[in-house]
Specification:
Helix content: 10-25%
Order of helices and strands: EHEEHEEEHEEEHEEHEEEHHEHEEEEE
Number of helices: 8
Distance between the termini: 27 Å
CATH architecture of the largest domain: 2-Layer Sandwich
CATH superfamily of the largest domain: Pseudouridine synthase
CATH class of the largest domain: Alpha Beta
Radius of gyration: 22 Å
Strand content: 35-45%
Number of strands: 20
Shape: globular
Number of domains: 3
CATH topology of the largest domain: Pseudouridine synthase
Structural class: alpha+beta
Length: about 300
């Protein structure tokens, strides 16, 4: 059998993840579809969860730290009366409690406690490391440890419906927020028990479900049943940054990692100058570097080789 030619793909693919598989499973599909080991993702989705999973392929893996730090949006269903060890429907039942006797307005009042900034304890079934080991691995071995607490922010939290025992919510949160932990903490505040029975990520940064590739399409490409779906260019993937075009001098300076003069960067008219990072491209639209503004010059924080094309 002839050896398959290595991939030369570099870019971003937004996948609509299916339920019943891990985010790593989707990464593995992409590795086979694009014939490269260089694939990462911008934020784990639990096996039960579906929706937006942003994949970075080839040189785009350099963008993963920036993509991961972006806000996320979800729609979720929380079922009251039963709690599980994993805080979702995939876990074992740990205890039961009465369903809250509240109407929608009553629930919304309790949700106020979870709007804005507050500390959140991470779930014990999670990939967070404690003492060098993943919490889910420690939990499987029955080892109890003190769970880390992180500062999180809920920028928006809306009650979609309350049809006992099921509560449906829409939320917009910052990096590191666990929706499963929200179910746990909301139930505790109401002297009840609860767990997630559905979770769908509707947005990751500026990437939404609109135009997302169904996981089944990626799976078919991985099985060589069809061509792998096209990816966004590196520049298109930099929605977290303000886009600018470099002069020839700017391209040359960027290639050497030198500071770039202000006059060698033309900012896109629609650019959001409040963003701390700048995606600097050549006149063909190819991403050359990510940079930060330092007074009247730009300092390179990450460079990309000129051959990093789709």
């Amino acid at each position: 059998m002839a050896k398959r030619k290595p991939s030369e793909v570099n870019g971003i693919l937004v996948v609509d993840k299916a339920s019943g598989c891990t985010s790593h499973d989707v990464v593995q599909l992409a590795r086979r579809a694009y014939r490269t080991r260089a694939v990462g993702h911008a934020g784990t989705l639990d096996p039960m969860a579906t929706g937006v999973l942003v994949l970075a392929i080839g040189q785009a893996t350099k963008l993963v730290p920036y993509l991961t730090s972006e806000d996320k949006a979800y729609e979720t269903e929380i079922t009251f009366g039963v709690s599980t060890h994993s805080l979702d429907a995939d876990g074992d039942v740990t205890h039961t409690a009465p369903v809250p006797d509240l109407d929608g307005a009553g629930f919304d009042a309790h949700l106020n406690k979870f709007r804005g900034k507050f500390p959140q304890m991470v779930p014990k079934v999670s990939a967070v490391r404690v003492g060098g080991e993943r919490l889910h691995a420690l939990t499987r071995r029955g080892i109890e440890v003190e769970l880390p607490v992180r500062d999180v922010e809920v920028r928006d939290l809306s009650l979609l419906s309350w049809l006992p025992p099921k509560l449906r919510l829409a939320l917009h949160v910052t990096k590191g927020f666990y929706v499963r932990a929200l179910a746990r903490d909301l139930a505790a505040a109401l002297d009840s028990a609860a767990h997630l029975t559905a979770l769908r990520r509707t947005q990751s940064g500026d990437f939404t479900l609109e135009g997302a590739v169904p996981q089944s399409v990626l799976a078919a490409a991985a099985a060589e049943e069809q061509t792998a779906p096209p990816v966004m260019s590196l520049a298109e993937g930099c929605r977290f940054a303000t886009v600018g075009t470099l002069s020839d001098t700017g391209v040359r300076d960027a290639g050497f990692g030198r500071l770039i003069a202000n006059e060698d960067v033309e900012i896109c008219p629609s650019g959001d100058l409040s963003k701390p990072l700048f995606a600097l491209c050549d006149d063909a639209g190819e991403l050359i570097a990510l940079a930060e503004k330092r007074d009247d010059r730009y300092k390179i924080v990450r460079g990309f080789p000129r051959e990093a094309r789709i």
